[in-house]
């Protein structure tokens, strides 16, 4: 009887371990992020988010819910997940802000002047818009894929006061990160469900951006064509 009980217990432990392992992501971005969290704990989640800010193809909608799931597994606390992921967002944003500050207005205009279909007036209009709406753009931009990283560059170019930039970035990042980390924590092993849902949001943003760029290019080409026709006439 004792031997049978031992064998049953061993079988149960093996099954439980296999089930637990199947919950953890393997391979891809999720697997890479999971390995970071296994190795560094909550700091690994922060490092992954910092890299996500610098390389937008790394999706925060994968990393953040996964951090929440890891917290639900006891790898680190929920508070640590929130603090470290937000710190990672701020560090990544600061790096991009520094790039913008080093680039500066004059270099930006010089680069724009060499780009096809782009005019210096486009940069001036963007500057005027950022002067009026920069604070809102930095805060709400932290919650929009692609823009959540890129918005830090014009903030640096325009030399937005650093305390203001840090405050807005921290607040916006804490809201965005907090939602995903908390949902991932609540869903547990089903953390990927929020990733699938937000993936649609990210794709919708990409489609809108692509359409805006396409319209800009078409309008600018037509305008340039009309200008050439008038000059010949």
Automatic annotation (TrEMBL):
What's the superkingdom here? Bacteria
Q: Where are the transmembrane segments?
A: 81-104, 164-188, 200-221
Q: Which PANTHER family match?
A: ALKALINE PHOSPHATASE LIKE PROTEIN, UNDECAPRENYL PHOSPHATE TRANSPORTER A
Give all residue intervals belonging to the VTT domain. 58-185
Q: What is this protein called?
A: VTT domain-containing protein
What are the protein's UniProt keywords?
Cell membrane, Membrane, Transmembrane, Transmembrane helix
Signal sequence coordinates: none
Q: How does it sit in the membrane?
A: Multi-pass membrane protein
| Organism, scientific name | Streptomyces longispororuber
